[in-house]
Amino acid sequence: xxxxxxxxxxxxxxxxxxxxxxxxxxxxxxxxxxxxxxxxxxxxxxxxxxxxxxxxxxxxxxxxxxxxxxxxxxxxxxxxxxxxxxxxxxxxxxxxxxxxxxxxxxxxxxxxxxxxxxxxxxxxxxxxxxxxxxxxxxxxxxxxxxxxxxxxxxxxxxxxxxxxxxxxxxxxxxxxxxxxxxxxxxxxxxxxxxxxxxxxxxxxxxxxxxxxxxxxxxxxxxxxxxxxxxxxxxxxxxxxxxxxxxxxxxxxxxxxxxxxxxxxxxxxxxxxxxxxxxxxxxxxxx
Length: 286
Ligand code: IPD
Ligand code: CA
Ligand code: CA
Description:
By secondary structure, this protein is an alpha+beta fold. The protein folds into 2 domains: about 15-160, Fructose-1,6-Bisphosphatase, subunit A, domain 1 (Fructose-1,6-Bisphosphatase, Chain A, domain 1); about 170-280, 3-Layer(aba) Sandwich (D-Maltodextrin-Binding Protein, domain 2). Helices cover about 35% and strands about 25% of the residues. It has 8 helices and 14 strands. The strands form 3 sheets. Strands 3-4-5-6-7-8-9 form a 7-stranded mixed sheet, sandwiched between helices. Strands 11-10-12-14-13 form a 5-stranded mixed sheet, sandwiched between helices. Strands 1-2 form a two-stranded antiparallel sheet. A hairpin with a 2-residue loop joins strand 8 and strand 9. The radius of gyration is 18 Å and the shape is globular. One calcium ion binds next to strand 4.
């Protein structure tokens, strides 16, 4: 195989990783084929919180593929949970004790998908006894499959990933988010954005938490922070960043665990500086 040729990502066999990669690839290809043809558009918790039939169909497809191979495993998927503040946390509390728990965001970046902006992803994580052991994120637009297994490193199409080397925030390209909750989460994030913008080299808000994390892992972003996410937005990406040598905590500095909803993920070197800026701006969400 030529050195610049991509490693095929359709695997055979029944390993957890093979099943996750196949499910992400299949769902991602289908999602991409429906770009601009998503049928009915509905809203969830707010006017800005969108969902389409494609989100629901992709989650069904992924669930079926996982359960075909692992019928005893539990699944927590975004489209299986009531929208709003409490239901996701309740669902996580109920599922957290499972030996094997799959955590799915069928389309992370639905708003982008709806507009045809090519920055959205499929995110699939597997937690074993409450700890993420596998993370797979697929970017259909760039045909990039990001895969991390606990203690085995993180890869994009077979190439080992490493976080970037910037030492200071002033050298860093930092991703941020505009969550679909204009009343509570948006103002907190805006305080952080206002404080970070003059200190970082620049900020980006791509609109997919999972892809931001995958790009931190790949060394293309120096860091990412956002307040008010859900477990399915970050579970796979948190492992990708950690296995690429980065640091993942909540915005107060507690190491990542499944309950983290206010995330800070960086190359490690500028982590403390980023957390301090959020703290000073009262933008941690705590
Ligand atoms: C959203 C995206 C977005 C982030 C929002 C998430 P969805 O997920 O990750 O980047 O800012 O907070 O809800 O709704 O597209 O799956
Ligand atoms: Ca999401
Ligand atoms: Ca989603």
